[in-house]
Amino acid sequence: MLRISDRKQGFSFGHYLNDLDAFISANDAVANVDVIRRDIRDTGLEKIAFYRYRLKLKDGSIVELTERIIEESGKFNTTKYRVHWQNKSGKLIKRWDNAPHHPEINSFPDHLHDGAVDNVKSFNLCG
Description:
This protein has one helix spanning about 15-25, and strands spanning about 30-40, 45-55, 60-70, 75-85, 90-95, 110-115, 120. It is mainly β and about 130 residues long.
């Protein structure tokens, strides 16, 4: 995923999603992209971007990308993310996410499921 903290003055959700699309399109490993959801909402107090893409890779594996970003008072914060990668048989390869269900991990809430749902490791998204 593109890091939201890397964005400069003039950043917008539209730019971010367009950059993400360009990044995916330029990747030779991607065979097909399904956009499951791609929304930008303005509540008047904050703007929220949410996307979910399913990428089929040329080796038959699947990567699902999900991210929710909130812009409030000019500051952007990724509040939820998930990158789920499985082989063509549906077996988990890796999943990076920040669901708050592993407080024992020192990178909480960020963590990695490595090869199995119960094989959880620390993971620093920005490091």
